[in-house]
Amino acid sequence: MFQLGRGRTNSTPEQNTDEDRARRWSGWIGRMATGDIEAFSAFYDESSPIVFSFVLRILHDREGSEDALVEIYDRARRQAASFDMQRQGPLVWLITIARDIATNRLRAGPVVHSAPDPYEHKRIVAVSAAAMLSGEERSIIEMTYMGQLSAVEVANLLGMSTEYVRRQIVSALRKLRSASATQCRQS
Fold first, then answer.
1. Which CATH number fits domain 120-177: 3.90.1310.10, 1.10.10.10, 1.10.287.70, 3.40.50.720?
2. What parts of the chain have a pLDDT lower than 50?
C-alpha cells in the first residue's frame, strides 16, 4: 500500500505471511537434510494440504493423489540437501516436485486399483484416532512403532528423558485405544 510522503510501499499481511512461511519452510527443509524427523513432520503437516489439492487438480483421483503425496514427500526428504533458497522458494520447489510426480503418473496411465481392502475401515479408524494425538505424541508413536526405535532411542533423538517418552507412549496408546473404541461403536 502506498503512503503519501513516504515514497515507499508497505508489505501487505499476505506478503508477510508468505515471507514467514518461506522462512519457516526453508528452515524445516534445511533440518530435513540432516534427518530431523520433527522438521519433516512439521513441514508435512503445514504443506501437505496445499500440495494435495494441487495434485488432486492434476490427477482427478483422490486415492492416486494420496499415493502421489507419499512419493512427493519421500522425494522432498531425499532432495532436501539440494534445496537452494536463492534459486527458488520452498513452495515453488515443493510444487515442482509435486508437478513432476503427478504428470509422470498421468503419463503412466490409469492405475488399476486392486480388490477392496478388507482392512480399510480399520485403517480409517486408526487415522482418525491418530489425528487426536498431539504432534509430539504422534512423532513418538511413529518413531517407536513405524521406525521401530526403542523408547531410549527416541528419547535420545528428541533430547527428552526416557521416562517422559515412555509416559507419552502410554498416554498416546490410551488415547488411540479410546478413540478407536469410540469410532468402532459409531460405525
1. 1.10.10.10
2. 1-12, 15
The CATH architecture of the domain made up of 13-108 is Orthogonal Bundle (1.10)
Alpha-carbon separation of residue 93 from 13, 26, 168 (angstroms): 23, 10, 35
**Cell numbers 486399483 label which residue?**
113
What is d(CA 140, CA 125) in angstroms, rounded to the nearest whole number? 19
Do 105 and 160 meet the contact criterion of CB atoms below 8 Å apart? no
pLDDT digits (tens, 9 = 90+) for 119-129: 676 777 777 77
Q: Enumerate residues 6+ apart whose C-beta is below 8 A from 90.
A: 21, 22, 25, 26, 29, 83
Rg (CA), the chain: 20
C-alpha grid cell, residue 116:
477392496
Q: What is the pTM of this model?
A: 0.53
C-alpha triplet 80, 81, 84: angle, nearest 5°: 85
Close Cβ partners of 49 (under 8 Å, ≥ 6 residues apart): none
Domain boundaries, the chain: 13-108, 120-177
DSSP letter string, 51-106: HHHHHHHHH--HHHHHHHHHHHHHHHHHHGGG--TTTS-HHHHHHHHHHHHHHHHH
20 vs 173: CA distance, rounded Å: 35
**Whole-angstrom Cα distance, residue 74 to residue 79?**
9
